[in-house]
Amino acid sequence: MTHNSLCAICDLRHLTVSSTHWCQECEEALCIDCKEHHTMSKASKSHNVMLLSVYSSLPSSITNIELLCTYHNEKYLQYCVKHECPICYKCINEHGKCGELILFEVVVNDVKASELFRDMEQSLSDLIVNINQIKKDRESNIDMIKNKRKYVIEEVTHMRNQINQHLDNMQYVLMKELDKVENECCEKIQLLVSSLNDIYNAISQCNTEIENMKKYASDIQMFLGMREIQKKIIINEKCVHSMIENMEIMKVDIDYVVDGTLPDFLTNTKPFGSIAVTSSPSDGSDLVSSKEKQAQILELEISCNEITGCCVTVRGGYLFIDYDGGNEKIQALHADGESHYNIPLSRRYSSFDLVCIDDKTVAITTGYSSEKTCVMVIDLTNRKVKRSVDLPTQPFGICFNGNSLICCCYNMDMHVISCKDFSITKIPNTSTSEYSYITSHAGKIFFTDPDKNQVNCCLYSGVQVWEFKNEFILRNPRGITVDHKGNIFVVGMESQNIVVISSDGKQFKEIEMDQLNLSQPSSIFFDKIRKQVLVSDQDSVANLYNISYI
Predict the structure, then answer these.
(1) pTM of the prediction?
(2) Domain ranges of the chain
(3) For the chain: N or C, fewer Cβ within 10 A?
């Protein structure tokens, strides 16, 4: 990026005033007077304004980050969770049906303190540690080979001294083979070390860029710069892992194999011996991964007696439903797990499951209620019920697809509630049992059936796509959620596990609760923004986990 020596605002007023500052968001130079107005104006007081001298000294890795939409040259306004990209107002037509659009300012807010940023820093640190570890291991292997070479020479020399000078020629041949093997082995290892040095330099550069971003970059620059750095990290991680998978980091050894017929060498033996190269697993291939060691990143303390629903807000806060008879409520926690507030719900309404419509509004189902069976829309700002939609039977699980609420109604077809006019339509052939939960993704609906111990997938037309039933693995399925890749996460209350099912319903992976410090899982939520999963136990326990994909 370039900047002008004249104030951009004064220039529009046909005044010639030297600039002293630079606004990164507006990409304009400002004089001292315009800078004061800029920092106090409601529209621009949150902008990152710095001295021109400081801006000029910023590294290109920061100043080259594009702050405007590359397609329309407009400011980013929203973030598409499905495609993991920021969009301007002109992009909304292309992403309008994606279902999950979030205000961009919410996504980038405090990004330097986010778990994603800390995770990226940790990945960089781990990669540097692993590269140094492998380099040290390879250098040690070279020293070992050289020492073994000395040992082999000593053995050969000792043997040669016991036999006739006639063996000189054979010793020469063997030494030539030894030198050749040594050179080939060392050259291969040196080539690998050279590749590691290249990766190390690239990662060191990323580390430098990270430090510069932490000091000088705006939240927007940090967020966008992170994406590019993350790509480099992934590429270099794959290079290191491929070295291990291709067995390039095997421990190389050389040995002198003594021919068993040496006592009769003069008459019976023609070869003097051979040099054997063996490979065995090396300590250098034991990579450090802090992310894998720290899968559970937060244990939440909740004052609920019976948790039946949970979710994560756009800003990273946590919401839980307490279904305890007579004490129904919503409990809200801050992003750091500290208690925020409670919203008591009268027995008239009750509460079972919830879903965020936006960062200020949630929808709640009543489950079994003494009076009303409905879906409530609650304003989190004033913490009051702003609307209720009556239903003919008890509603349990609920989800939001970006336009409508879809809820499971006991012994009836699913009800779809439009968020525009709150009209209701039904999805045929989707009758659900009590305590069924629901989620949706990419034009499909996924819901649990605790009575039949199965998970179902159907279209909005009611046509069944697949069903998953394996009572050895999943019993009494309750909460269900879906990640950004279309994988379905289901908690089994009786089987005490989490089952991850592929989007086509053909593959699955089981995660047992003893790995997650939970015993009776009831609800689950996948945070597509932060790539984390929140799992609640029915008995007042909830944990947050990082999700990594292999």
Answers:
(1) 0.61
(2) 8-107, 113-290, 295-544
(3) C
